[in-house]
Amino acid sequence: MGRLRGSKNKNSLTKVIASSMTAKERISILANLIIDKMISDQKNGYPLLNKLNST
Prior knowledge:
By secondary structure, this protein is an all-alpha fold. It has one domain. It has three helices and no strands. The longest helix has 21 residues.
């Protein structure tokens, strides 16, 4: 069986992990990543927020 189209550089382990998680778990991970990025931005003087506000 051949590779899926566009799958040349993708890690197949990512598919296994993502497919075994519930939607609630995936949303929770995404929310935590966003919160971590916001905290990091806050500690560094809000460069991301300032960039978003300037557009």
